[in-house]
Amino acid sequence: MRTEDVLAAIATGLWRWDNASGTVTLDGEAARLLGLPAEPVVLPEVAVRSRFHPVDWNEINGIVNLAVAEGTLAEARLRIMDVDGRVLRTVRSRSKPVENRAPDGTTDYELIGTIQEIAEPQPGTTAAHTPITGDWRRSREAFLLDAGRALAEARSTAEVLRVAASLSMPGFSPDGLAVFGVAGDRLSIIGHHGHDPGDEGPFSDMPLETNYPAAEVVRTGRAIYLPTPEDYKRRFPAAWPLAQRFDRVSWAFLPLIVAGRTMGAWMAAFKHPASFSPDERSVLTTVARMLAQALQRAVVAESERELTTGLQRSMMPQLGPEIPGMRIAARYVPTGGGLQVGGDWYDMIPLPSGRFALVIGDVQGHDVRAAGLMGQLRIAVRAYASEGHRPDAVLSRASRFLAGLCSSPESDPYADDGGQDSDPDSYFRSPRFATCLYAECDPRTGMLEVARAGHPDPAIRMADGTVLMRPTAGGLPLGIDPESDYPTTRFTLEPGETMMLCTDGLIETGGHDLDTGWARLRAVLESDAHENAYEPTYDAQGPGAGADTVGQLAPPHLERLADLLVQAVHGPSSHHTTGPLADRREDDIAVVLLCRESAERPPGAAPAHPARPVRRTVLTVAQVEPERIAGVRQQIRELLHDWADPDQVDSAVLMVSEMVTNVLTHTDGDALLVAEAIGELGARRLRVEVADGSDELPHKRQPGEMSSSGRGVLLMEMLADAWGVDPRGEGKSIWFELHEQSKTDADPVF
Q1: 123/223 Cα distance (integer angstroms)
Q2: 575 DSSP assignment
Q3: Which of its termini does the chain have fewer beta carbons within 10 Å around, N or C?
Q4: DSSP result, 248-266
């Protein structure tokens, strides 16, 4: 059975109303419901419009316009009339407005939906306008509930005015609306509907002493009802010539009152006579009260948004100036609740040495005080950095500065005052802390010096899209211990690599913890790299000159990548991929991306063959930080996350752990590790070097059965494809190589 047959069996027809062409397509059942022969037909718009009650047609226009603006369904009840003006039946229309863009750029829409007959008693036999008594579409209470819901959901003045224009009052819908606002002793129109552009000119700015109904309503706070043109002309003869040209016959002017103060007036004008019965006046008065409340909320909300947006913009820096060989992108997203201000920030600081510093931090809290402390701390960090201090010194001074801001020598914030707050300013001096990461960068070499105060580690995306968490040394958050030290970690950002700095809001928002949050971000970083974040770099002649492109992949589009990272947390998909925690913890988000651009081919050089970028990581493990050996093992596993043979990965991790441990055990210096994976997938070569400052060379030993050491060289000989020791001027470098190979099949069982 066809779908059309099923719909016809339940008295439901299909229609398509094309507003651009002015035609309506009906199936057989829809044509029958409109009083036409029961067969599919395409009719002009005017032929279908003549079948609707004129009052219903006025209301359906507002419903459709609201549905177009909000992207929702347009649903209404319509009375179908015959050629003699008698009501044949009542139908329910449900349709979806679909926008269509014409070649000239204009936008129109078509309605696609259903018409279904409603079995209910019909009033009268003519289609003449009747007052509100016994509204057949909806009761007065139902209308007011719908109007209150729509006005309560409006968040701006424009939305409130749009909702007010679309309200379909039961039985006496106005044809023209206007909302007047008061500014000092002047009255002006802040929105209107049902009038042509420019019609508001004479009313846009008038003194409150003007003999005009809206001005009198504002002066007295009482509604004015004008059922006939004669009433208007008699009471307001000076304003009548202005109102006469709109061809209306009834008017209602009602005050917009909030908390006893008249903030404006609302005009409802009708092209058909309205007697303004007690029921009608009750509906208009209730709508005016709801409209006034909605406008007041919208004004307050817009003022708060303007205030908080201005506050955050004044505190957030502009990234610049442009740095040769480097590209930077940043995003800040305040928390969704309250005033939308918080303590997250980022900054880029030019340094006297010609380098620049990237700073990202998070002050405890999401309130106005957190935003204020953030602004003070950002200025202090910028001042210390501009003086030329090293990263560790900058954070040490910033920690003392924040501790001083939050201290109160006059009172003890932990003292028992019997439940009474003896110092009303104690809230603004209560202890607060802040996490921070400070990275000083040399744009010529890509060398980074990072100091970290309780902040998440940076993430590095290599040129081939592999993402590594870069462990760095760190200290306590700022403001906890004024004497805390902040060790510095050095590493190099290679050409084509991107470093991501972020606050914990990007990781943990959405019910995630650190592990699941990093997994979410890693998926975004890697997927963008593998899909279309890279673009080929062409020579000076441009892409159209030929096919000889540089083999090295170009840096990713940072702006797009920054948007993807934020969308992963605040986009629609984030609501379906919540983390393992029960709540969706909302937090501010700050993220900074730093990319070192790939080296371009010199002019006139021969084009390079496409080659996969080298995957490289460099780490230093100090004598006083043996616990970082675990981070070294994790780095090697992440570097070889797509290695063909897992056993080779385990071997590499074991040998690296043994080499770094030997340096810390048998020498007095630090261990410098350099690991590189070179070649195409499936045929790569891993080379790992561990350098130290000792001249003593390793030698092969014969450990006993119960010995706990002495097997390092034996392991290298057994597991590495090649290994060796390279003496240096001061110290030595121990290295090994592994050649990638597919995992061999298990030996057959005999």
Answers
A1: 32
A2: G
A3: C
A4: --EEEEEEEEETTEEEEEE
Q: Say which DSSP state 583 is in.
A: S
According to DSSP, the residues that pair with 74 across neighbouring strands are 95
Calculate helix-pair angle for 157-166, 140-153, nearest 10 degrees. Answer: 160
DSSP state of 651: H
Residue 695 is inside which H or E element, if any? none
Cis peptide before 321 (omega within 30 of 0): yes
* Res 168 pLDDT > 70: no
3-class secondary structure for 315-346? HCCCCCCCCCCEEEEEEEECCCCCCCCCCEEE
Instruction: Show the tokens assigned to 693.
Output: 């400052």
Per the CB < 8 A criterion, the answer to whether 398 and 484 are in contact is no
Q: What is the pLDDT of residue 573?
A: 61
Residue 32 corresponds to which tokens in the numbers above? 């029958």
Enter the tokens of residue 415.
């003292």
119-149: pLDDT as tens digits: 654 444 333 444 433 443 445 677 777 778 8
Which residues, in sequence order, are bridge partners of residue 118? 90
39 secondary structure, DSSP code: S
Q: Contact at 8 Å (CB) between 270 and 250? A: yes
Side-chain-side CA neighbours of 212 within 13 Å: the count stands at 24
Q: How far is CA 366 from CA 68, 428, 429, in A?
A: 37, 14, 16
Could you give the CA distance from residue 110 to residue 97 in angstroms, rounded to a whole number? 6
Packing angle of the helix pair 391-405, 368-386 (nearest 10 deg): 140
List, in order, residues 6 or more apart from 43 with CB less than 8 Å away: 23, 24, 26, 36
Q: What letter represents residue 657's amino acid? A: S
Q: How many CB atoms sit inside 10 A of residue 282's CB? A: 13
Around Cβ 431, how many Cβ atoms within 10 Å?
15
Q: Residue 522 and residue 467: Cα distance in Å, rounded?
A: 7
State yes or no: pLDDT of 524 exceeds 50: yes
Sequential DSSP letters for 373-413: HHHHHHHHHHHHHHTT--HHHHHHHHHHHHHHHT--TT--T
24/43 Cα distance (integer angstroms): 5
The predicted-structure confidence for 230-267, as pLDDT tens digits, reads as follows 999 999 998 898 888 888 899 999 999 988 888 899 99
Residue type, 234: R
For the ranges 376-380, 402-406, 528-532, 574-578, the maximum mean pLDDT occurs at 376-380
- Closest by CA to 214, choosing from 284, 164, 275, 262, is 262
Contact 323, 557 (CB under 8 A): no
Dihedrals φ, ψ of 464, to 5°?
-95, 5
Q: What tokens does 740 get?
A: 């990638």
Beta-carbon count within 10 A of 211 CB? 12
- Please state at what angle helix 278-315 crosses helix 368-386, rounded to 10 degrees: 20
Burial of 138 (0-12, 13-18, 19+ CB in 10 A): middle
Q: What is the mean pLDDT of the chain?
A: 78
pLDDT tens-digit series, residues 71-80: 667 777 888 8
What whole-number distance in Å separates Cα of residue 467 and Cα of residue 615?
A: 10
